[in-house]
Design a protein that fits this description.
Shape: globular
Largest sheet: 9 strands, mixed
Oligomer: single chain
Helix content: 25-40%
CATH class of the largest domain: Alpha Beta
CATH architecture of the largest domain: 3-Layer(aba) Sandwich
CATH topology of the largest domain: Rossmann fold
Number of domains: 2
Structural class: alpha/beta
Number of helices: 16
Distance between the termini: 18 Å
Length: 398
């Protein structure tokens, strides 16, 4: 049986008809669906390019194919291409296919007529539109309307789905509850094999020279709170802290953030590395860090980048939003959007090596709960349930 999977991730197709992904969704990510299905068809936005960026990885391969949706960015371009987008998405799904929607997602919403027929489908709830469109997370005149619309739609989808998998253990389940009859589970999208973990927690000493603070986040939209972290770092430096702030990730907002760094007069303390290959290159950067920080304002379900940092034994600080409180204790959290509170927390942590060592040990132990050997079992149970439900439905339909 083939499974069709919708996703909001964007991909690139080169002239040789190969598909390429950024760090988030390479072939290894989609191959996991083959644990229960014979073939995977990924339904996603695809742009043509002469060649992939150096950091991108092959996304298609044996058992994994792509169905291209007309490329768009933002609501205006979506409306301009509305009819061909809906047509492409609906035609991509065959009558005997299993269906998994990674949501919240505008592409998934194109299948609403299909979902009303009683056909079983699964949801992988990876984002939170209520948090994504919270005040300060994005800037758009229709933000309040989008927040109401997309939140309402995701709640409706969760009530209709025959199987729902959440990336959080409780946060998203509470906001977007499944129906009483649905198969329900939880697993993160993170990939953590044994090589992703350090052997033992780290120890820290008071050192001369700058402390390295790393953040991994898309710079595509303002909801990642990069501006908040820049302002917090500037405050720390002005108060005498020696910091080196490193951002891994890229996107449309990068130039705006670079200008913000100049305005705050901390250009010599901040480095934008852009997108780098997943795996060892990212782990090397994390291994050199004294602290990992995510200042997200909302929208994330459970940040994979933070779990990867925890697996390297890096002390972590994050906003008290979405699933982050499921990863970190209250003493390592700060209010969303509060640069001053974040600055105080960074200084508080970096000035206490003993606390950093305790954080390292706790984070490494917590990350073990997200290893492939643990989450792989839950994923397969979800896939198998959906395959069986689809097979039973096919036997009943004329």
């Amino acid at each position: 049986m083939r499974v069709c999977v919708t996703t909001e991730q964007r991909f690139v197709r080169t002239p040789d008809k190969r598909f390429w992904a950024s760090a988030a969704s390479p072939y290894s990510f989609w191959r996991r669906y083959l644990d229960a299905f014979d073939e995977v068809r990924v339904i996603a936005r695809v742009a043509d390019a002469a060649e992939p960026a150096p950091s991108w990885k092959r996304a298609d391969g044996e058992g994994v194919t792509f169905e291209s949706v007309p490329y768009y960015v933002g609501p205006y371009q979506y409306l301009l291409r509305l009819r061909p987008i809906h047509k492409a998405v609906r035609e991509a799904v065959g009558p005997a296919d299993a269906l998994i929607l990674r949501v919240g997602s505008q592409i998934a919403a194109c299948l609403e007529p299909v979902l009303r027929t009683g056909r079983p489908f699964g949801l992988e709830v990876v984002g939170d539109p209520y948090g994504f469109f919270a005040p300060g997370s994005v800037s758009h005149p229709l933000r309040p309307f989008f927040r109401w619309l997309f939140t309402r739609r995701l709640r409706r989808q969760c009530q209709r789905a025959s199987a729902v998998a959440y990336v959080t253990s409780g946060f998203l389940q509470h906001r977007y509850p499944p129906s009483e009859t649905a198969f329900c589970t939880s697993y993160s999208s993170v990939e953590l094999g044994e090589d992703a973990f350090v052997m033992a927690p780290r120890s820290f000493d008071r050192q001369s020279g700058p402390m390295r603070v790393v953040s991994v986040a898309s710079l595509e939209l303002p909801n990642k709170g990069v501006d908040v972290l820049i302002d917090a770092a500037a405050t720390c430096i002005q108060q005498g802290s020696e910091l080196e702030l490193v951002f891994i990730g890229d996107g449309r907002c990068r130039s705006e953030y670079e200008r913000r760094v100049v305005r705050r007069r901390i250009g010599g303390h901040v480095c934008f590395l852009g997108t780098i290959p997943t795996g060892r290159p990212v782990r090397d950067q994390l291994d050199r860090a004294q602290l990992f920080v995510l200042a997200v304002k909302g929208g994330d379900g459970l940040p994979r980048a933070m779990i990867e940092a925890m697996a390297r034994g890096v002390p972590c600080v994050g906003s008290a939003v979405a699933g982050i409180p499921e990863l970190l204790p209250p003493e390592d959290l700060v209010p969303r959007g509060d640069a001053n509170a974040l600055a105080r927390k960074i200084r508080e942590v970096l000035n206490h090596p003993e606390r950093m060592a305790r954080m390292s040990a706790a984070n490494l132990a917590r990350a073990r709960e997200y290893g492939d050997s643990v989450l792989g079992v839950r994923r397969r149970e979800f896939y198998v349930h959906l395959r069986r439900a689809t097979q039973e439905w096919l036997r009943r339909v004329p």
